């Protein structure tokens, strides 16, 4: 696959948008390596490298759906109706690649605040999303599919005592045309500070 909407790096950044409905193909192995390596360039106070990623593809996606949806139902979440379960299973079956995202909790760290470690992990995820877009694929950061159910986190090998689970990146080829997103004007979010008020 070749980049189609990324004429310049800055254009790539301003045209990226979340794409929930995906299909194959997923990034090729060498492309996935580039995408994950981009995460390593995230700003990271203290070089703690708090981000952790678990790649889920092929038959493992169906296993994840089984584990996660059963765990959500056991948790008593009333939103997991039979209709919702069917919809989630159909969505997951169409996505060729998931990357679970977690922040490793640095128990022995006394210097770097945990919120800075969480921000570093978020920056690593943003690099993944941008790299995915730059290679011509689509991605969606989901906090559904049992993200806040401890049994799901543990099933992924991310013990809740040592990791903060932050959801999944669904990655693949957009299943339909993706119109440009309407973005707000940055001026609505920026002020200039010239001295104490």
From TrEMBL:
Q: Which residues cross the membrane?
A: none
Quote the record's binding site residues for FMN: 16-18, 45, 141-143
Q: Which GO terms describe its molecular function?
A: oxidoreductase activity
**In this entry, which stretches build a coiled coil?**
none
Question: What cofactors does the UniProt entry give for this protein?
Answer: FMN
Look up the EC number in the record and give it.
1.-.-.-
Manner of cofactor binding, per the entry note: Binds 1 FMN per subunit.
Species this protein is from: Achromobacter kerstersii
Instruction: Work out whether the entry's keyword set contains Phosphoprotein.
Output: no
Name the chain's protein.
Putative NAD(P)H nitroreductase
């Amino acid at each position: 696959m070749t980049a189609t909407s990324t004429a310049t790096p800055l254009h790539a950044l301003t045209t990226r948008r979340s794409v929930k409905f995906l299909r194959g193909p997923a990034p090729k192995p060498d492309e996935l390596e580039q995408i994950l390596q981009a995460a390593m360039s995230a700003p990271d106070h203290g070089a703690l490298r708090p981000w952790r990623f678990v790649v889920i593809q092929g038959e493992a996606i169906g296993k994840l759906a089984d584990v996660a949806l059963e765990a959500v139902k056991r948790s008593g979440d009333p939103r997991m109706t039979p209709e919702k379960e069917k919809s989630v299973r159909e969505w997951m079956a169409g996505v060729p690649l998931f990357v679970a995202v977690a922040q490793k909790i640095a128990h022995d760290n006394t210097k770097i605040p945990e919120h800075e470690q969480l921000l570093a992990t978020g920056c690593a995820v943003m690099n993944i999303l941008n790299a995915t877009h730059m290679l011509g694929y689509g991605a969606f950061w989901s906090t559904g599919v049992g993200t806040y159910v401890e049994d799901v986190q543990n099933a992924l090998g991310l013990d809740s005592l040592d990791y903060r689970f932050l959801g999944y990146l669904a990655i693949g080829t957009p299943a339909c045309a993706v119109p440009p997103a309407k973005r707000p004007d940055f001026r609505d979010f920026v002020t200039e500070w010239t001295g104490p008020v």
